[in-house]
Write a structure and sequence with these properties.
8 helices, 197 residues, 2 domains, Beta-Lactamase
Length: 197
């Protein structure tokens, strides 16, 4: 389907608007890739979810199992065999979590030649929570659980059959591993990270 009238950039300008600012603020992550597949532009939502990608290859934001479909769909647009693509994929958030997305892309043309690709990604629901990786040793987890239960150093020493000094060393290890300065902060941070029930 061919659009009639001025293009979106000209029309926005005529209305006194700025299409670049609108795309930068749109709620879906969006990118522009050059012919070589390098990210040349991304909006704020893309940076927030996937981390800064400008200057990197666009394929790097995709999970290994989705890289082939990314390559295939991008190549179609560059060769001119397709102008648009809509496909499911898995991308990798800045946190390292894998999230299913629906990718929508369109060829950017200069005359009849494709010079790049514009795309957006719709996240399919909420990303799955990351697997729990504890910064604590098994003993430090026990100590944190005991702290959350309100146990004193003496009570932990008796329960774990350790000296009070050894318990204090474990408490210091918990504080260091969680990046906090007090036992109370350790419990709060442990709950925030899901380390304490």
């Amino acid at each position: 389907m061919v659009a009639h009238g001025p293009g979106p950039t000209r029309l926005a300008s005529r209305l006194g608007g700025d299409l670049d600012l609108a795309l930068a603020d749109v709620g879906l992550p969006a990118w522009i890739l050059d012919r070589g597949g390098t990210v040349r532009w991304e909006n704020a939502r893309a940076t927030e979810l996937f981390g800064p990608q400008v200057g990197r290859l666009g394929i790097e934001a995709f999970a290994l199992e989705s890289r082939e479909v990314f390559r295939r769909e991008r190549t179609k647009k560059l060769l001119g065999t397709a102008t648009t693509s809509d496909y499911p994929a898995v991308m990798v958030l800045a946190s390292g979590r894998h999230v299913p997305v629906e990718v929508h892309t369109v060829a950017l043309r200069n005359g009849g030649r494709a010079v790049g690709v514009f795309g957006v990604a719709e996240l399919d629901g909420e990303p799955a929570p990351p697997p729990l990786v504890s910064p604590l040793t098994p003993r430090q987890r026990q100590v944190l659980q005991a702290l959350a239960a309100g146990c004193s150093t003496a009570q932990m020493a008796e329960t774990f059959h350790l000296s009070k000094e050894t318990v204090r060393n474990h408490v210091r290890g918990v504080l260091h591993a969680l990046g906090v300065h007090s036992r109370l902060e350790a419990v709060v941070e442990g709950r925030r990270r899901g380390l304490v029930g």
